[in-house]
Amino acid sequence: MQDESGKTTTRRGFLQAGAAMGAGAMLAGTTAAAQSADPLITEIQPWAQGLGDGVDASPYGLPIRFETDVVRRNVSWLTADVISSINFTPIHALDGTITPQGCAFERHHSGAIELAKEDYRLMINGLVDTPLVFTYEDLERFPRTTRTFFLECAANTGMEWAGAQLNGSQFTHGMIHNMEYTGVTLRTLLDEAGIKPEGKWLFVEGADASSNGRSIPMEKALDDCMIAFKANGEALRKEHGYPVRLVVPGWEGNLWVKWLRRLEVTDAPVESREETSKYTDTMADGTSRKWTWVMDAKSVITAPSPQMPIKHGAGPLVITGLAWSGRGAISRVDVSLDGGITWKEARLAAPGQDMALTRFYFDHVWDGSEMLIQSRAMDSTGYVQPTKAQLREVRGMNSVYHNNCIQTWWVKPNGEAENVEVS
Ligand SMILES: Nc1nc2c(c(=O)[nH]1)N[C@H]1C(S)=C(S)[C@@H](COP(=O)(O)O)O[C@H]1N2
Ligand SMILES: [Mo]
């Protein structure tokens, strides 16, 4: 940390200097005078008067009880039941970029099934030289890769097309997670079976009752898709497809088949299965666009936000959020405090990675007046995240899927935030 004279000061020096500046000074801490009357500083606390838990108290740890509100949540009116349903990642309360599996959103068409590794089989058939069946152990013997990708459901932010709907980034943008996957490339397995020249598509299906069958162009399948058996270093959780799921980087979540059981090489997309044609977008002229698999660049401020009001009043304020693009890496994120009239560049926590979440920070000194905060992502292709008005010009009002518009939070002088639309 540097002071005005250019000298490097310590954090303690910063706090002392701040205290000397007295009331009204911009510092993120209490003064020494306040600290001296604070029993948390002056008294020996209960947790220091005895011993803590031994090492075996919880062989597999869970978050401390003070963090029990950092959980997935669903919106009961959104779907008829919780079997064919969806919930939302608490992105408002997380930081960094990796989503812990335990709170990563779930989307099931027929519930999360329990499938043991011993009972697992993966079949490759169709237009291949040699149809093959792999056990879980077979898969573990192929050369492995580890890569981090986001998965976004095409319906994420879908409720916001018509107007500002849900109060919280968890609900407006929480159909997303970002995990480090370990597994085998799809190319490795398809090469093992040998794709016939007519094989231009790959039909992928899961072992659950819905099967979630989808067709993927062979070009994508051979490019960067993976079959994953680990996420964030450990086995996939049941709800994310244990023991094996498909990873389709940058493409909409419904293609990422969980409990993956079959890969069929075909010459044309398999159209008969349910929902293959469901994920279409209605355009401004009433026509539909289909096969919009790639998730366009998008971002959202996760805090402050409706579930994360500012509690500390005016002064230093960390504005933070997430940005991502299915077409490449995030190259830049801008933040506006005035509803998109003026923009300033945010700081990326780390350089953007292809098809993975990027964390951004905007270090602000808040004067306590109302703000209309927005973030705007740019990706390595030069694409700039559109405003809601720009998106509606192209897509009209009847779309459900693929809403990647700029989000606005109205932060009031009392620190509370609300989901609003600016014209
Ligand atoms: N087998 C199977 N795979 C599936 C689904 C499903 O219901 N069954 N849902 C899909 C949809 S629509 C999404 S958005 C993602 C959600 O993955 P998650 O539950 O790990 O978040 O899984 C996809 N893969
Ligand atoms: Mo989805």
Shape: globular
The percent of residues in helical segments reads 10-25%
Identify the CATH homologous superfamily of the largest domain: Oxidoreductase, molybdopterin-binding domain
CATH architectural name of the largest domain: Alpha-Beta Complex
Structural class: alpha+beta
Neighbour order of strands in the largest sheet: 4-3-12-7-8
- Pick out the low-confidence regions: 1-25, 273-277
Overall number of domains: 2
- Could you please say which CATH topology of the largest domain applies here? Sulfite Oxidase, Chain A, domain 2
CATH class of the largest domain: Alpha Beta
Q: How is the main sheet built?
A: 5 strands, mixed
Describe this structure in words.
It is a single chain. This protein has 8 helices and 23 strands. Helix content is 12%, strand content 28%. Strand 13 and strand 14 (288-289) form a beta hairpin. With 423 residues, the protein is of the alpha+beta class. It folds into 2 domains: 88-282, Oxidoreductase, molybdopterin-binding domain (Sulfite Oxidase, Chain A, domain 2), CATH 3.90.420; 298-420, Immunoglobulin-like (Sandwich), CATH 2.60.40. It starts with 10 loop residues before the first helix and ends with a strand. Residues 104-109, 151, 153, 177, 206, 208, 210, 212, 239-240, 253-254, 256-259 line the site of ligand MTE.
Give the structure's gist in a few sentences.
This protein is an alpha+beta fold.
Name some characteristics of this structure:
binds molybdenum atom, 423 residues, five-stranded mixed β-sheet, 23 strands, single chain, binds ligand MTE, alpha+beta, Sulfite Oxidase, Chain A, domain 2, five-stranded antiparallel β-sheet, 8 helices, Immunoglobulin-like
